[in-house]
Amino acid sequence: MFYLCTPIFIPKLVGKEIKYILAIESSCDDTSAAVLCNKKVLSNVVATQKIHEEYGGVVPELASRAHQQNIVPVVHQALSKANIDKKQLSAIAFTRGPGLMGSLLVGTSFAKSLALGLNIPLIEVNHMQAHILAHFIENENPTPQFPFIGMTISGGHTQIVLVRDYFDMKILGETLDDAVGEAFDKSAKILGLPYPGGPLIDKYAQLGNPKKYQFTKPRVSGLNFSFSGLKTGILYFIQKETKNDPAFISKNLNDICASIQYTIIEILMDKLHKAVQQTGIKQIAIGGGVSANSGIRKALKNSVQTHGWSTYIPKFEYCTDNAAMIGIVGYLKYLENDFAKQEITAKARYKIA
């Protein structure tokens, strides 16, 4: 049986040519494959690598090996859940970068081989661009109107981007050292929490007093970020307090986490305020793994009332690394006939143009 998306949204596709995009994401430690029918996600499969937990962070060599083990079953499962055959695919989209080179090579090589075997177009995708354009996946959430300000916050990146169109973006500011996700995870490590620690800080923060402890916010000009000094400040604070009371962390964990999270959110929101002042644009869309943080989502929602912003927050499943966001970019590029050649290679460093 030839499967045409789902009965729920077939009427929306009247007059449109139906395209199936297989998307592959392998930039870090999650192997993901998705199938999109135009802008609608039919499947979005993610295989998470648990092996890194015992090391307290992602080990690149182990990540690439796990991708090699996971990519075939993940792609097979994505096609099965979408209920289509690989011969029905219109194109294959893949993450070219940025990311870990070994991990990117696995996804890139697989995508190139499958596209060549099926004789269908190959589409390269910038991972950070995909986090922003994830807002255009067809679902119940509203989509931002151009132009808008995009803020990508993840374990490896922190950026503020002016988005004029799907493929017309300009970086207004970015981190000069560590990313916001790394600041969360390393702060958690200082507190003795397991990896990944960011979600745990969020969990405990909801039970604590965000103004119990004060941490110095770094002074960085313009719209750029810096989190290395904040991490150092947190480390010195914990060392000082535990020297006086070895049980300090366990007694005050909720308040410590709440204060750390409050400071990080203040840093992010301060920069967004500056971006709005400089551009005059009050449409704000966030993306990336850290956009799943409850405190950040709450602060952004509150800005609707306090500052008159229009804010856009992706569904949880499209916050962390996933192939659905790669697929929506792939579909938009397919409409532009923007295809890659077989000679294309992965790029560990790959900025939004």
Task: List key phrases describing it.
Nucleotidyltransferase, domain 5, 41% helix, 5-stranded mixed β-sheet, globular, 353 residues, single chain, 18% strand, alpha/beta, 9 helices, 2 domains
Can you tell me the CATH architecture of the largest domain? Answer: 2-Layer Sandwich
Percentage of residues in strands: 15-25%
Q: Poorly predicted ranges (pLDDT <50, ≥5 residues)?
A: 1-15
What is the typical, i.e. mean, pLDDT?
A: 92
Helix content: 40-55%
In the sheet with the most strands, the strands line up as: 3-2-1-4-5
Structural shape: globular
Class based on secondary structure composition and strand pairing? alpha/beta
**Biggest sheet statistics:** 5 strands, mixed
Instruction: State the separation between the terminal residues, measured CA to CA.
Output: 42 Å
C-alpha-based Rg, rounded: 21 Å
What's the helix count?
9
Q: In the CATH scheme, what's the topology name of the largest domain?
A: Nucleotidyltransferase, domain 5
Strand tally: 10
At the fourth CATH level, what is the homologous superfamily of the largest domain? ATPase, nucleotide binding domain
- The ordered string of helix (H) and strand (E) elements is EEEHEHEHEEEHHHHEHEH
CATH first level of the largest domain: which class? Alpha Beta
Number of domains: 2
Write the topology of this structure.
Elements lengths: L19 E6 L4 E8 L2 E9 L11 H23 L8 E7 L3 H18 L3 E5 H7 L14 E6 L4 E8 L2 E7 L5 H11 L7 H8 L22 H17 L3 H32 L3 E5 L6 H14 L2 E3 L10 H13 L18
Parallel strand pairs: 1-4, 4-5, 6-9, 9-10
Antiparallel strand pairs: 1-2, 2-3, 6-7, 7-8
